[in-house]
Specification:
single chain, mainly alpha, two-stranded antiparallel sheet, 14 helices, 59% helix, disordered C terminus, membrane, transmembrane helix, transmembrane
């Protein structure tokens, strides 16, 4: 062939004119992005690990896994930075004490946990709830084992373990117990497995964790799909049933929680003391402030049951309001509907008012996954379409 002869196009060198090109095989999607998004939220419910280290210990690895994320994740990071600035302003302008740095660091870790949690929720809320349900069932089995064999849990962290006068443990509440409230029954296709899951989670919430808050949230979350999808008369009937259930819970709660009167009395005393001190100082006393005769935790004396009122005393009304508004923005960032975002934030703040959960990643994640109605996965012929 002469050097200057025209060459055929590269794509025609090895194909005859009548050859057909086979379609490319479909490429399986990578699991790595999902793993990156789900790892940190799941670790907030890994109870065996949480007996040894705080869930906040996983915040930095969680952020490194997510990396640069997406636009909404980076916007959440900006909200976290704003929250961090508020916290630092309080630290540098208010009174110092021996616990201020520890309190501030715990707050900062929670602040940067929220973007990573939101990223996992937005990635696939149904998958996240399914995986958390598996973790919850494991935690239920572990807690039953601890109770049946009376395992000595002294020295482990993150536990609220109460013994009766006979020395028998009758309550075990660990820091991620609230995630039992968002258990997804449709994790399993078989009806008997769904019923078994419901029975196991209910048994744990009512007879092991014995938390009125988690009982109420579990009932609300189980009813939410029916309320949101049903016609008006069903919604009214469900609302009436919910009110009736709340009345029964109020009546029989002392049977489930014999210590409830003592707990409520302690919270009432805490609130009265805080309100009396707020009258003299509305500028905030600083991170780590504590009242000796109200403290029950030697390691974290600044954290009491009435956490939100105490936070107002520590940070001042202005800083506390700014923090709550920015956390509200975090909830709205991962909400499929604004109204549900407001409802989740209201649950977060109202229950955090008299429980020491406000800066706990698992509590934020619990509220962020409440009141969700994800579509059921396709089955049968739909899978082939």
């Amino acid at each position: 062939m002469p050097d200057n002869a025209a060459l055929p196009a590269p794509g025609l060198l090895s194909l005859p004119s009548n050859a057909s090109v086979a379609p490319a095989a479909p490429v399986a999607p990578s699991l790595w992005p999902t793993v990156r998004a789900m790892a940190f939220p799941l670790l907030t419910n890994a109870w065996p690990l949480l007996l040894l280290v705080s869930q906040k210990a996983f915040v930095v690895p969680g952020l490194l896994l997510v990396g640069s994320g997406d636009t909404r994740y980076r916007r959440d990071l900006m909200l976290a930075l704003a929250l961090g600035v508020v916290g630092l302003l309080v630290y540098f302008t208010q009174f110092g004490n021996g616990y201020d740095q520890v309190h501030l660091i715990g707050f900062m870790l929670f602040v940067f946990a929220m973007p990573a949690l939101n990223y996992g929720v937005r990635r696939d809320p149904r998958l996240l709830r399914k995986l958390l349900t598996y973790f919850t069932l494991f935690n239920v089995a572990l807690s039953i084992y601890f109770l049946v064999y009376d395992v000595d849990l002294y020295g482990f962290r993150g536990l609220n373990r109460i013994e009766g006068s006979d020395g028998v443990t009758y309550r075990i509440y660990f820091e991620s117990s609230s995630l039992a409230a968002i258990a997804l029954l449709s994790t399993f296709r078989r009806r008997w497995l769904q019923l078994a899951t419901l029975a196991a989670v209910t048994f744990f919430v009512v007879l092991i964790a014995r938390s009125a808050v988690v009982m109420a949230l579990l009932a609300a979350n189980l009813m939410a799909p029916y309320i949101l999808r049903s016609p008006p008369h069903i919604k009214v009937a469900t609302a009436i049933a919910a009110v009736g259930s709340a009345v029964l819970l109020f009546i029989y709660l002392p049977v489930i929680r014999p210590d409830i009167d003592l707990s409520l009395s302690a919270k009432q005393l805490q609130l009265q003391v805080i309100l009396s001190l707020l009258q003299d100082n509305w500028s905030g006393w600083g991170w780590g402030t504590f009242i000796p005769y109200l403290s029950t935790d030697r390691d974290q004396p600044y954290q009491i049951e009435m956490q939100l009122p105490m936070l107002v005393l520590q940070l001042g009304p202005a800083a506390t309001t700014a923090i709550l508004l920015l956390i509200l923005a975090m909830f709205l960032s991962a909400a499929e509907q604004s109204l549900r975002g407001y409802a989740r934030f209201a649950t977060y703040a109202l229950i955090g008012f008299n429980n020491p959960w406000l800066f706990l990643p698992s509590w934020y994640l619990t509220c962020q996954l409440l009141f969700r109605v994800e579509p059921d996965p396709p089955t049968g012929p739909e899978l082939q379409q």
